[in-house]
Design brief:
heterodimer; A: alpha/beta; Rossmann fold; 38% helix; 24% strand; B: alpha/beta; D-Maltodextrin-Binding Protein, domain 2; 3 domains; five-stranded mixed sheet
Chain lengths: 246, 472
């Protein structure tokens, strides 16, 4: 596997009230698909945002490909890390293509290259081509999520971070998009870190899971390991609670 | 070329009352007839404004009264020409008439009571007097009159000058103060009481100018020495105020009859007048608004980025907004003098708050996940601002600019008070002459312009605000 893509070493993030995240020691192997799971408020999204510098640790450090993140390099590093924010985060003033091509246009890609790449991504993400000319308010929830995924993939980053990518979708769309996401991950072979509170979804989409609770990592490893060899009673009860759901 | 000529032209100012406007017009036409380019800066305001403008070199000449100079500007100076010379100013020979304070009565009442001179009033302690508020208050007005003539009337009322004339005619009061060249005297039903003990200072009409006046201009003004008698001035005031003849025409007719100067007045038609004022008005609004956008848009962005600075900047702009526009304009005079400059600065200050607030509110209203998305994509700060934040805030920014523009169109009418021109000019003149038609000539275009600005910004919103935002 070589060098891990992400490492957090004793990373701590404190908030005004008593709540603090960490210290977190996490290693994300290159090429793996990792799910951050846990109940809401466990700090999954915060950990994800530590990885691309949207949240800055108060202590400890975050390394990307072996180098500690530095604020000066953040924009350049982030262009190598695709990020799908919770809810999609599409810009309402731009149409779907405008959202997908925002950074490429800023980097002055020529229009032909942009269109070709967008068409390719629409195919991968299974977005109807005519949807590229629609504004976010004219897209369905599933389509918006696909556009958001395309936007994250536009510069062909090595890494993809997804925060609850299937969060607010209806069950049908959710099921469909789950399948498509798995295909995309398999096809593109990127390092993926995604946040979900659903164990089944984690098992379906990823090979590794990181279970969090109250700002701490409880257990990390293969998903089956969490089920087979829980390290403490919380893991057991979390797994059991998820099993009871249909 | 025209602009250059205007800049070189002798600038003649006038105060905001009819006699001053006519005298300035007479000076301008006389100068022009003698080959000196001259321009009339009409109705700039009161004595203080004209005096400061003259000293600052923004005007070269204006009509004034010796009594006013002695009592108000150079109080305590015995040698007026000497004191003026030390300030770099000069005074022309008297024009002939005096515009003194005087007391007037209805001719029939005066005859019945046997009153001819002011001394006669001391015999009539029971008559009722009505004075203009200024006359009641001024040191050289009622207080001095009472002292010099030992008047003991108990029934003394303060009232508006115009109302005093009406009260006099209807018999509610028996005597009032007036100016010895008031237009009302022409009607012939008023008796002027002679100031037999010389209580009032003498208000000889003169021109004040910046010394030295170029020789041709000095020669031109010299032709007016002693040229205007009191009855002639009364007649001219009455033609302008009562017959509604434009001052330029009144002056031109007088100069033709008296000095044989035959220069037809080029009176612009209604359309040309409105076109010129529209140009002036738009100039004030456009320049001040452009400067305000260039200044307060970045400031609004900074105010959003640094909250502490933002609170201070918005607070200061808010305080500026509460200053009444008239006060702000007057406040500008000692700093920037008269004309378009200070008016533009005042309008600029008024535009700051709406634009800053619109920008600040627009940026603050952006959902945090959108801002986070923009950063997570790897766009640097400037690109986030230019490609995401400003477009998302565009509606709010534009509505701030629209508010500022509409405020400016209204407030710019006050610019006429300090000689900035625009739609305020006919409104101001209309108020002075109690001419509703003239007031409407300014007020209607101003209202239409405000509507046009609204409509323009509605179009701009469609053009500038991204279509995706208008769908929602």
């Amino acid at each position: 596997m070589g060098q891990p893509t992400f490492e957090t070493i004793g990373a701590v993030k404190r908030y005004d009230d008593a709540f603090a995240l960490g210290p977190l020691d996490l290693s994300v192997p290159s090429g793996s698909t990792t799910a951050l799971i846990g109940p809401s408020g466990a700090g999954k999204s915060t950990l994800l945002r530590l990885l691309n510098g949207l949240v800055w640790p108060d202590a400890g450090e975050v390394r990307f490909r072996g180098r500690a993140l530095s604020r000066a390099e953040l924009p350049a590093i982030r262009r190598q890390i695709g990020y799908v924010v919770q809810g999609g985060g599409l810009f309402p003033h731009l149409d779907a293509l405008g959202n997908v091509a925002l950074v490429a246009r800023w980097l002055r890609w020529d229009e032909q290259r942009i269109e070709a790449r967008a068409a390719e991504l629409a195919h991968i993400a299974r977005l109807p081509p005519d949807a590229l000319r629609r504004f976010p308010s004219q897209l369905s929830g599933g389509q918006a999520q696909r556009v958001s995924l395309m936007r994250a993939l536009m510069l062909d980053p090595e890494v993809l971070l997804l925060d609850e990518p299937l969060g607010a979708l209806d069950p049908m769309t959710r099921f469909e998009l789950q399948q498509d996401l798995r295909d995309v991950f398999a096809r593109l072979r990127k390092t993926v870190v995604l946040v979900t509170h659903d164990l089944a979804e984690a098992a379906f989409l990823s090979d590794r899971a990181v279970l969090m609770r109250a700002g701490r990592i409880v257990q990390q490893g293969a998903v089956e390991e969490l089920i087979r060899a829980p390290v403490d009673p919380f893991v057991t009860s979390f797994v059991r609670a998820q099993r009871r759901a249909p | 070329m025209t602009a250059l000529l205007l800049a070189l032209a002798v600038q003649v100012g006038s105060k905001q009352f009819t006699e001053s406007v006519i005298l300035a017009e007479i000076a301008v036409q006389t100068l022009r007839a003698n080959g000196t380019p001259a321009e009339h800066r009409r109705e700039l305001g009161g004595t203080r404004v004209l005096w400061e403008a003259l000293r600052a070199g923004q005007i070269d000449i204006y009509p004034e009264y010796t009594g006013t100079i002695a009592e108000e500007m150079l109080a305590g100076e015995r040698d007026l020409p000497g004191a003026l010379a030390r300030l770099g100013l000069g005074m022309s020979d008297p024009l002939g008439f005096e515009d003194n304070y005087a007391l007037g009565m209805r001719r029939d009442v005066a005859e019945r009571l046997g009153v001819r001179v002011i001394s006669d009033l001391s015999r009539l302690p029971n008559i009722e007097l009505g004075f203009s508020n200024e006359f009641l208050r001024r040191r050289d007005g009622w207080p001095r009159l009472r002292e010099v003539y030992r008047l003991s009337q108990a029934r003394v009322r303060g009232m508006d000058h115009q109302l005093a004339y009406r009260a006099l005619r209807s018999g509610d009061i028996q005597a009032t103060d007036l100016y010895s060249t008031d237009a009302e005297i022409r009607a012939g039903d008023l008796a002027l009481l002679e100031d037999d003990r010389r209580a009032f200072p003498r208000y000889q009409a003169v021109f004040l100018f910046r010394a030295p006046l170029p020789a041709p201009a000095a020669r031109a003004l010299a032709r007016l020495a002693g040229a205007i008698s009191a009855p002639e001035m009364i007649a001219m005031n009455a033609r302008a105020l009562i017959d509604r003849v434009p001052e330029a025409q009144v002056a031109s007719d007088f100069l033709r009859e008296k000095l044989g100067l035959d220069r037809p007045v080029a009176s612009a038609g209604l359309a040309a007048r409105i076109a010129q004022r529209t140009a002036e008005h738009l100039f004030l609004v456009a320049v001040s608004l452009a400067a305000a956008i260039a200044f307060s848009l970045p400031l609004g962005i900074l105010a959003f980025r640094w909250r502490r600075l933002g609170q201070v900047a918005l607070g200061v702009a808010g305080v500026v907004q509460t200053i009444p526009s008239l006060a702000l304009l007057v406040f500008m005079i000692p700093l920037l003098g008269i004309g378009a400059g200070p008016a533009i600065v005042a309008l600029f200050l008024y535009s700051l708050l709406p634009i800053m607030r619109g920008t600040h509110a627009g940026l603050s209203g952006i959902a945090p996940e959108l801002r986070e998305s923009a950063h997570a994509l790897g766009l640097p700060e400037r690109a986030v601002l230019a490609r995401v934040e400003l477009p998302l805030a565009s509606r709010s920014i534009l509505s701030g600019i629209k508010t500022a523009a509409v405020i400016d169109v209204g407030a710019a009418t006050l610019g006429a008070l300090i000689g900035a021109g625009g739609y305020g000019q006919p409104i101001l003149t209309g108020i002075r002459l109690a001419d509703t038609g003239l007031i409407l000539e300014g007020a209607v275009p101003a209202a239409l312009l405000a509507l046009a600005v609204q409509a323009l910004f509605d179009l701009l919103e469609r053009a500038l605000v991204p279509r995706g935002l208008l769908l929602a």
